[in-house]
Design brief:
It is built from 5 helices and 5 strands; from the N terminus they run ββααβαβαβα. By secondary structure, the chain is α/β, with parallel strands linked by helices. It has one domain: Nucleoside phosphorylase domain (Rossmann fold), CATH 3.40.50.1580. β3, α3 (89-97) and β4 (100-104) form a beta-alpha-beta unit.
Length: 163
């Protein structure tokens, strides 16, 4: 409603795989949603899950700008869940078996709505924890630094894209 045509989510995600650690950066190549698209299925075409895929050019811009900053984010599938902290090991295992590397809350709805409305969107996430592993609180300095780097990359990617 205010005229945004390009959207980027920069935030945190929980790792589903042992090779992603706190502070690692990923770029979503797609997002999964629960049963029929979660809450989106209540308001948009009945029985149709809006496609939660990022804009390819925007995603390439994020990867390119990250490389120019000396970062090597992983391109990964994420699962968007509104059941924060409810995932158990069996659920996490099912997600891993389907190819998901991380779980978070906003990518699926953001990407779906962007596709429905003809907007350009992509997502860059920083791993904040490993799902299902009791651990001490993450090193806040590492997490903060990674989020700042991701935000800088996202801003550069945003301004590099033509409308």
């Amino acid at each position: 409603m205010i005229g945004a045509r390009k959207l980027v989510r920069v935030g945190t995600a929980g790792s589903l795989t042992p090779d992603l650690r706190v502070g690692d950066i990923i770029v979503a190549k797609g997002a999964g949603l629960s049963g029929g698209g979660g809450g989106l299925s209540l308001y948009y075409p009945p029985g149709v899950c809006p496609v939660p895929s990022p804009d390819p050019e925007f995603t390439l811009a994020l990867l390119s700008k990250a490389a120019s900053e000396g970062l090597s984010p992983r391109l990964a599938l994420v699962f968007s869940s509104d059941s924060f902290y409810a995932e158990d090991e069996s659920f996490s295992g099912r997600l891993r078996s389907l190819g998901f590397s991380a779980v978070e809350m906003e990518c699926g709805p953001l990407l779906s709505l962007a596709n429905l409305r003809g907007l350009r969107a992509s997502c860059m996430l920083v791993i904040s924890n490993v799902v299902g592993h009791a651990e001490s609180p993450p090193n806040q300095g590492v997490l903060r630094e990674a989020l700042l780097k991701a935000a800088k990359v996202a801003l550069k990617a945003l301004v590099s894209l033509k409308p």
